[in-house]
Design a protein that fits this description.
The chain has 176 residues and is α+β, with helices and mostly antiparallel strands. It has 4 helices and 10 strands; from the N terminus they run αβββββααβββββα. It has 2 domains: 80 residues, SH3 type barrels (Roll), CATH 2.30.30.100; 80 residues, SH3 type barrels (Roll), CATH 2.30.30. The protein is 26% helix and 39% strand.
Length: 176
């Protein structure tokens, strides 16, 4: 039932909030695309501002909510202030999509392991079935880079084109 319903909501450009087993925080946005395994959301803030794209496996979804007053208010703000960017990929699985986006974007943000607090803004520089090799970009606080390996099974979700992520990359490019 979930995949046909998500595809219907995508066609209607309905603003939704998705709750996932791996996080206490809802993700609010408009569904960008749905594969058999993955859903992509065009994220928006409560003020209707574009906040990047996020992708995660459909199996993580515990609830999908839409149509309440808060969603209608945010949708009106999106019409007035929100950018309507698009994201297109050819891959089908989360790992393949991550690799594809890492090849075409300046960076991706990978959330992994124990929830939303553990993430890396990075480029994927190597991978096999079980591991991803990442070149990471540190936060504003450290601005340090490092290389690390993470298990593919630990990947919870990824984001691209978020203002926070773009600002971190811009700071790294300044050579601080």
């Amino acid at each position: 039932m979930i995949i046909p319903e998500l595809k219907k909501l995508k066609l209607q450009e309905e603003l939704v909030s998705i709750k996932r087993d791996s996080s206490e925080n809802d993700l609010t946005g408009i569904i960008e695309f749905v594969t058999n395994d993955v859903v992509a959301l065009r994220l928006y803030t409560d003020d209707g501002l574009f906040d990047g794209f996020t992708l995660f496996e459909i199996s993580q979804i515990s609830e999908v909510i839409w149509g309440n007053r808060a969603h209608k208010a945010i949708a009106l703000l999106i019409q007035k202030y929100g950018e309507k960017r698009r994201l297109s990929v050819t891959a089908e699985t989360l790992i393949e999509i991550a690799a594809e986006l890492s090849d075409i974007k300046t960076s991706i943000c990978l959330y992994h392991s124990f929830g939303e607090d553990n993430f890396d803004i990075c480029k994927i520089v190597g991978r096999d079935e079980d591991w991803l090799k990442l070149n990471t970009f540190g936060t504003k606080k450290t601005l340090s880079t490092l290389t690390k390996l993470i298990q593919t099974s630990s990947l919870l979700r990824l984001t691209v084109d978020s203002p926070y992520q773009d600002n971190i990359i811009e700071l790294h490019q300044c050579g601080l």
